[in-house]
Specification:
- By secondary structure, the chain is mostly helical.
- The chain has one domain.
- About 60% of the residues lie in helices and about 0% in strands.
- Helix 3 runs antiparallel to helix 6, helix 6 runs antiparallel to helix 7 and helix 8 packs antiparallel against helix 9.
């Protein structure tokens, strides 16, 4: 699925910093703004760039979960991008639906925990089933109960980001275990714009 435009509130100072990091000044001049799809595509590509050396390391030491944190960042990029839309609330509702749609696409491609037992040792046998269960779970009640209007819509988008984070973490582990397809092959991510190559310390990069 494509066409997509964390949880807990961010402090206003953190949001302001995020705007600066994502090019807030460029937005004001009418230049292209970052959006969720480009952000997540880029971070997934970085994960795939580091995938071969990661698997060569092997074991728990080789696994990297940095993409998990970037999902939250990209979710906020999407929400801030909606602030500039003609109808910000409708944009955030669409974003929430797209986030949940991406989550569902990821979950559909994940292997059952029993099918990957023993692939990377005890650490993955303990971690993957737990993350898989969390990613496939549902909240016991309304996550944004008591919120209204703009804050309620914002809260729903943030909660959707949190659900996506768990799905992507489960995918990262399954990918590390060579039990899940690359995101672009699976269809829930697209090739990103040109990106920075991997640093090569032996060359002084």
């Amino acid at each position: 699925m494509r066409g997509v435009h964390s949880t807990g509130p961010l402090h206003p100072a953190a949001i302001a910093a995020l705007v600066c990091l994502t090019g807030g000044q460029a937005w004001a001049t009418g230049e292209a703004r970052p959006e969720f799809a480009t952000c997540i595509d880029t971070q997934v590509a970085y994960f795939e760039r580091d995938y071969p050396p990661m698997t060569q390391t092997g074991g728990e030491a080789g696994f990297q979960n940095g993409l998990f944190d970037w999902v939250d960042y990209c979710g906020m990029v999407g929400i801030i991008d909606c602030d500039y839309a003609e109808d910000p609330l409708e944009c955030q509702r669409t974003l929430r639906a797209d986030l949940d749609g991406m989550r569902n696409d990821i979950l559909a491609g994940l292997p059952a925990p029993t099918s990957v037992t023993g692939r990377a040792g005890e650490w993955s046998d303990e971690l993957y089933p737990r993350v898989w269960a969390l990613a496939n779970g549902f909240s016991a009640g309304e996550d944004c109960a008591g919120t209204q209007d703009a804050f309620g819509v914002w809260c729903e988008a943030r909660e959707a980001t949190g659900r996506l984070k768990l799905a992507i973490l489960a995918w990262q582990i399954a990918r590390y275990l060579n039990a899940a397809e690359p995101a672009v092959v699976a269809g829930w991510a697209a090739p990103p714009p040109p990106m920075r190559p991997r640093a090569r310390p032996e060359r002084g990069d």
